[in-house]
Each structure stands twice: as structure tokens, then as C-alpha cells.
Specification:
3 domains, Immunoglobulin-like, Heat Shock Protein 90, alpha+beta
């Protein structure tokens, strides 16, 4: 073993100062201390989150400086500071990582950082399960209100249909008991008067023409009364539309009536409107379109009744489509009938493609219940 005296002068020491030792001492969420020995997880987002830390340098601890960042909240490291805590407010739920580095008294930053991860759970109303539940509840509420609205509208339409049925029956009785009976009585008297006139009398020929006109009016009136009182009978729309071929003189036109789906009974007060809309469309096509092909399509589905009348004629001018033909009420009448029964009328026309009239009536309104 060597003997002797050794002398060390600290002022002459040229070695480097070791890096500062750093430590995250605590995390405070609002006024609650977080246990750092277990998994760092917060039950709800805090209003204020504070990280407390310290750094140790043996030569001059007062000159230790810190830099920190909270990923992914911070985009970059903080500026150099001698503060021993970092505070964040209004953090959103999610995963975070707090990172810390320090410099010693010589301004040398340590390369090894200290970090701690933490998880902030959302409030229950921020969780996706809660939001999904709210969306589902709102969706069910909207659906319920929609179905209630449909039920209310259907009930109103059924009430209107019932009132219209009563009105149709009353009108039919009044027509039969007044106008038709009056015309019948007048025609009988006129017939008796004709029998009493001599053959070759010019007045007899004129009265004969008047008698034929009265008999025609009586027949038409009987048909109207029969239609008004036939509310409880099934109206075969395809058959009725097919009969219009002879009535409208469409012998030289390719005429076709097609049915898609199973034919269903219509509400009594509604089917006359459906027939009148289709008839008006056919009358317009026969009189004005100069078409060589006219088609009627009836489509029955659970959701709706669809009636389409299309032709390959000359079409309708845009001005007529918008405001109608002066002195004619066909288009406006069809639209009014469609609105009365809760339906929708669509008319498409062009000079090259012809005209298509489409009537759509919701199934809940159009069809009689099976009960």
C-alpha cells in the first residue's frame, strides 16, 4: 500500500457535470391526487390537471431547467422553464402521455426523458354507447310520432270518405226522386202527345227528337245514380278502362291495359276519383295527342296504388302543363282530385316522347282493410 498525501482542488476540476435527475412526483385532477403506483386512469375529464415534478443537480440545483409536452395535446415541447409543475385545463377524453426532460447547471439537456401515460374516460353522456342509445331513442320517438301522424291522417281521410259516401247516397236519392222522376213523367206526357199527333206533322218530328234527347239524358242520369249508389260494389278498374276504347273511338289506336300485382279493393269514396283521373287522361290522349299507341298501367303494391296513362303523341306544351289550356280544366281537375284523396299527380310530356300521367296514392289510403 502506497503512503503519502493527496490534494484535490475543486476549482481545477475539468470534468463534466452529470445530467440532472428528474422525477414526476404527483398528478392532481382538480383537488384529487392520482395514485401513480397503479394504472393511471381518470374516471372522468377533469377541469384542471396538474403534473408536479422535480430535478436534482448536485452542483447547482437552482439552475435546473425543464421542458415538457403532453402528447397528443401539445404539438411541440414547451419552452425552457424553472417551474416545477405543468397545468392543463379542459382536456377531452382519450389517451395521453406526459413527457419531461431537464438540463443541468451547465445547460446540458439529458437525452433520457421521463414519461407517464394516462387515460381519461369520458362522462357517461360522452360515451359512444350513450350517444348511440340517444340516437336510437330519438329515432324511435320520431318513428312513433310519424306513425301516430299517419294514423291521424288515415283516420281523417276515412272520416272524409264516410262523409262523402253519405253525401253520394243522399245525392243519388235526390236525383232519383226529383230530376229523374220528373224527366220520366215529362217523357211519358210527351210520348202521349206524340201519339195524338197526325202522321207527317212537322211538330211531331221535332217533338220526337226532343223525346229521344230526354230518353238519352234519363239513361245517363240512371248511370250516374247507379255509380253513386254502387259504393259497396267492387269496381273493376282494368275492365272500366278497357271499356273506354269503344266509348272514345280508339279502334285505330293500339290500346292496352295492364295490371301489375294483385288487384285489391279500393275505398268506395276514393275509387271514383281514381277512375275519373284515369278517364280524363285517356280522354285528353284520345282528343289532343294524335297518338297511335295508348297504354294504361295499374300497379298494386302494399305501399301504394299507381295508375299510369301514357301515349306516343305530340305532347303537351310547357305553358299548358304549368297553367292549363284556357277554358279547359282537365289538368287542374286531375290535380285537385289527386289532392283530395291524399295522392300525388305527375305529368311528364315532350313532343318526341309523348305524355305520361302518373297518379300515386298511398296504400294505407287507397286500399280497404282486410278485416
Amino acid at each position: 500500500m502506497d503512503s503519502g498525501l493527496s490534494v484535490i482542488d475543486p476549482s481545477q476540476w475539468k470534468g463534466s457535470v452529470p445530467p440532472a435527475m428528474i422525477q414526476i412526483r404527483s398528478i392532481t385532477a382538480d383537488s384529487d391526487m392520482i395514485d401513480l403506483t397503479s394504472v393511471t386512469k381518470l374516471a372522468a375529464p377533469p377541469r384542471r390537471l396538474t403534473f408536479a415534478y422535480s430535478g436534482l443537480s448536485l452542483r447547482n440545483p437552482d439552475r435546473v431547467r425543464f421542458r415538457y409536452r403532453l402528447d397528443p395535446y401539445d404539438g411541440n415541447w414547451s419552452g425552457s422553464t424553472d417551474a416545477h409543475e405543468a397545468t392543463y385545463t379542459q382536456l377531452e377524453p382519450g389517451s395521453y402521455r406526459f413527457r419531461l426532460i431537464a438540463s443541468n447547471s451547465d445547460g446540458v439537456w439529458n437525452t433520457a426523458e421521463t414519461a407517464i401515460a394516462l387515460e381519461i374516460s369520458p362522462f357517461y353522456w360522452q360515451a359512444w354507447q350513450f350517444r348511440l342509445s340517444v340516437v336510437l331513442i330519438l329515432g324511435l320517438a320520431v318513428l312513433g310520432l310519424y306513425r301516430l301522424r299517419l294514423h291521424h291522417l288515415t283516420a281523417q281521410l276515412n272520416l272524409r270518405f264516410a262523409e262523402r259516401l253519405d253525401e253520394r247516397t243522399r245525392i243519388a236519392q235526390d236525383l232519383h226522386d226529383t230530376l229523374l222522376q220528373g224527366f220520366l213523367a215529362a217523357s211519358l206526357r210527351l210520348h202521349v202527345a206524340l201519339e195524338g199527333l197526325p202522321e207527317g206533322s212537322p211538330i211531331k218530328q221535332q217533338l220526337g227528337g226532343a223525346l229521344e234527347l230526354m230518353e238519352q239524358v234519363i239513361d245517363e242520369g240512371r248511370n250516374v245514380v247507379s255509380g253513386l249508389r254502387s259504393s259497396e260494389n267492387h269496381l273493376d278498374l282494368p275492365l272500366e278502362f278497357s271499356k273506354l276504347r269503344d266509348e272514345l273511338g280508339l279502334d285505330e289506336v293500339t290500346f292496352r291495359v295492364t295490371v301489375d300485382g294483385r288487384e285489391r279493393n279500393l275505398h268506395p269514396a276514393l275509387r271514383d276519383h281514381v277512375y275519373r283521373v284515369g278517364r280524363e287522361a285517356l280522354v285528353n290522349a284520345a282528343r289532343h295527342s294524335r297518338a297511335t299507341r295508348i297504354e294504361v298501367e295499374l300497379q298494386y303494391t302494399d305501399k301504394q296504388l299507381r295508375v299510369v296513362v301514357r301515349d306516343n303523341g305530340c305532347g303537351i306544351s310547357p305553358q299548358t302543363l304549368e297553367s292549363g289550356r284556357k277554358g279547359h280544366w282537365g289538368l287542374s281537375g286531375m290535380r285537385e282530385r289527386a289532392e283530395k284523396i291524399g295522392g300525388r299527380l305527375r305529368v311528364c310530356s315532350s313532343a318526341s316522347a309523348g305524355t305520361e300521367v302518373e297518379l300515386l296514392v298511398p296504400g294505407r289510403v287507397a286500399f280497404q282493410s282486410k278485416s
